Amino acid sequence: FQNKVFIYRGKEYERREDFEARLLTQFPNAEKMKTTSPPGDDIKNSSGQYIQCFTVKPKLDLPSKFHRPVSEQIVSFYRVNEVQRFEYSRPVRKGEKNPDNEFANMWIERTIYVTAYKLPGILRWFEVKSVFMVEISPLENAIETMQLTNDKINNMVQQHLNDPNLPINPLSMLLNGIVDPAVMGGFTNYEKAFFTEKYMHEHPEDHDKIEKLKDLIAWQIPFLAEGIRIHGEKVTEALRPFHERMEACFRQLKDKVEKQYGVRAVLSSLDDRRGSRPRSMVRSFTMPSSSRPLSVASVSSISSDSTPSRPGSDGCV
């Protein structure tokens, strides 16, 4: 096991702390490393035992037979099954810190781990056979965050369309956290950081990426509209004032976004109920299913500290 990395599939609902406790029980003489920074040669060549453990995210890899959009239930299965690649990200600041906009110089250092076999398997863990690292620029990080947010809204909308008996609270929190900037800050930080003449002049190569980010911001509106429509149908009278405030915030957000970035439209709710999915669905980046624990990497690492992720939208004040 010396100087090797393994991806371990945790038990259902098992916390990482509990997994670490089990691991240290098997190696009573081992010392738990307190950071996720790569161990130095003094650690690797030491005669002592050290264990490093942190959570990684499985990377969705749909089989090639799914050459067209498939149902959310199938996608959810492959988010945490038949997975061979996992990732771990940490934020890295480059240049001078901007106290007014933390996104302007927030780079992401992402490490990709590829296991010998796909999880789950006969064993709950497999050795990592290859590791590589990529750097994601602040603009690319903003694009990824918007894609994740749109994906999350659409997934929850589809779940409520498929099952009208689902509780409304998760939908309430998600929608309010996006349309109310007092909760999550809004995407105005992206506008201040990337949509300025200065940035465009200094980074002409980013023109296509800026247009992509603007397009994702515009696409968020129809996703939110459908979510708020469903929320209005299911909300209780006690929560009606909350819903009305959320609607007011959304109207302001919608007017602003459509004026600046154009109007987008998705398929009708009736089509969605028949199993169709919005044509605008973006799956370049996906989130692991919340119904299962994240996988865990142990023993060694290339990076540290998970990435903060905040949905980007800007509603009423």
TrEMBL record:
Example GO biological process term? small GTPase-mediated signal transduction
**Pfam families found in the cross-reference section:** DHR-2_Lobe_B (PF20422), DHR-2_Lobe_C (PF20421)
Please provide, alphabetically and separated by semicolons, the GO molecular function terms listed in this UniProt record.
Answer: guanyl-nucleotide exchange factor activity; small GTPase binding
Question: Which ranges carry the DOCKER domain?
Answer: 1-266
Q: InterPro entries in the record, alphabetically?
A: DOCK, DOCK_C_lobe_C, DOCKER_dom, DOCKER_Lobe_B, DOCKER_Lobe_C
Which GO cellular component does the record give, naming just one?
A: plasma membrane
Q: Where is this region: Disordered?
A: 272-317
Q: Where are stretches of biased composition, namely Low complexity?
A: 288-317
Q: Which family does it belong to?
A: Belongs to the DOCK family.
* Protein name, entry field: Dedicator of cytokinesis protein 1
Q: Which organism is it from?
A: Pelecanus crispus
Lineage, top ranks: Eukaryota, Metazoa, Chordata, Craniata, Vertebrata
